[in-house]
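[step 3/7] fold_predict: job queued, chain A
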Amino acid sequence: MEPTHSLWIFFVLTFGIIVLPGLDMAFIVGTAVASGARAGGVALAGIVVGGVLHVLINLSGLAALLLWWPAAFNLLLLAGAAYMAWIGWGMVRAAWQPAVAAAAEEVSQPARLPQSSMAIFSKGVLNCLLNPKAYAFMLAVFPAYLQTQERSVLAQAALLSAIIAGNQIVIYGTVLLSALGARRVAAPGAGAQRGLLAGVGLLLMAAAALTLLSAWK
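[step 4/7] structure written:
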């Protein structure tokens, strides 16, 4: 198979995996709804960096070890699901706190949950690294496209990383804009703002539960 064709197939496969709803997408939506556009962008950046780290983990052989050793994979899966459920519960609880409710009363300024950019970025990276879907993809698909006569392994890995990051930016960026649009629509009403925040929190908790049930080995 020609290298160019292989890259296009890798692009399509990666796009198909990323576009499926999962923990990364839910985290970006939740962050954008809770804290606004800037926080959502930082969350997206954290997810992209996490994707690059997944490539490095795959090159080190750790991803194969995690999937070969079911107990370690299940521990990672449990940690990721618990982390996402914790974030979701925090949103549900915050939606009914007096401070958030009072802020939601202001028409021109939607309710925001205060978080530093570094905290959001770190959570995004950690969320991506705890995502079991990424490890399964990296072990099942990534190695087949790593060897080529055209480039060294490191150069090919960098190119594949760029394809993954590009797909993440396009897909998650679109999701981010949609979440911000929904946030603006809900902003004029305090009840709608709190309901949207609580709904996203419940969505995160449901995504965590479904991921845990579907991927447990």
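[step 5/7] annotate
The CA atoms of residues 14 and 123 lie 23 Å apart.
The mean pLDDT is 79.
exit 0
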